[in-house]
Amino acid sequence: MIEKILTKVKDSSALEVQFRLGHKTIAKVKNEWLEIDKESLGYSEWEDLKDLCLQNNDKLTLETKGFVRGVYKSMDQQWMFSFTEHKDCLKAYFSVIPNFELSQYIQSPVYWDTLKKSSGLFIVTGQRGQGKSSLLKDIISEIKKDSPKLIAVHGNFSTLSMLNNDSLIHLSEEALTWEAHHPIYDGIDQFVVDFNNIKNWEKWIKLCEEGRSVYLTISGLSVENCLEQIISQIGFQSNLARRFYQVLNSICYQKVIGIKEGAVHEFFVAQQAFKDDLFRMSFAEFKKHHEGEAFKKYFQSLNQSIIQALVRRRIDVKSAFATTEAPDDLDTQLKRMGL
User: Fold this and answer.
1) Which structural domains are found in the chain, ordered by start?
2) What pLDDT is stored for residue 305 in this prediction?
3) pTM of the model
4) Which of 184, 251, 187 is nearest to 217 (CA)?
């Protein structure tokens, strides 16, 4: 029964599914949660779901801690799962692990060139379930092709945990509180922090200032929203904000459309010439101030990426408008192009 539901979810291009005891199973299709099962999930089906996904030690963890994560491989798809059992709330959340490289949908040479820099801050942002960890995994895999450097990976269980490489050091959430000069960091030049909420910005900025590179994932609704969150934490026009912009290399916002359609991206590459203005202005003001062909080389809007997907026939017009966050602007651009 569970396998049939997961197959149904995959066939509908859904990326997420939630099972909850006593409720109908729902899946997220085109940013909308839809019921995909006529009957509510019964207790025997809940136990079947656990038997399907969890080993005995996982069940013990769920029983004692109330929460467990892992990976389940169905017939032709891998899923990242989390089970929760807390009082009367028994639920499981599954999200698709893309079996394709999300990085292939970023076509900008400028963005890829900035990832080759040996130091600085690189940020991947997006909403929950939008493949931030998977994109970062692709980026790290690309970086490792040309670099023997050690990489310290800070994160909970995610697709990054599945990377097996002798030069990767996997660290737990506890390591986030360690100081930048902690002995474990000696000889490490690249850091990955795969948590949606970043704290201790002083630490990561300092590591970048020492000539190291730091890759972060942050929950966000856009490049602008991501920057707003960061500046609200570190202070507008504060000394730490100035230091942040000096080490910032790029921000990439990802939105996955579907298993078949792939992803679209908004990105910004922070050139040195931009940094004083970034410090002085909000990002919305900054974009208005730098409108022009030269700026377009370093900033790609989500609508531009959607139009590229349309032109390459990865998506249709209906999917384009379901994906965009600025439908009026998209409509104007499509009419201008005669599409």
Assistant:
1) 2-97 (3.30.450.90), 102-300 (3.40.50.300)
2) 95
3) 0.80
4) 251
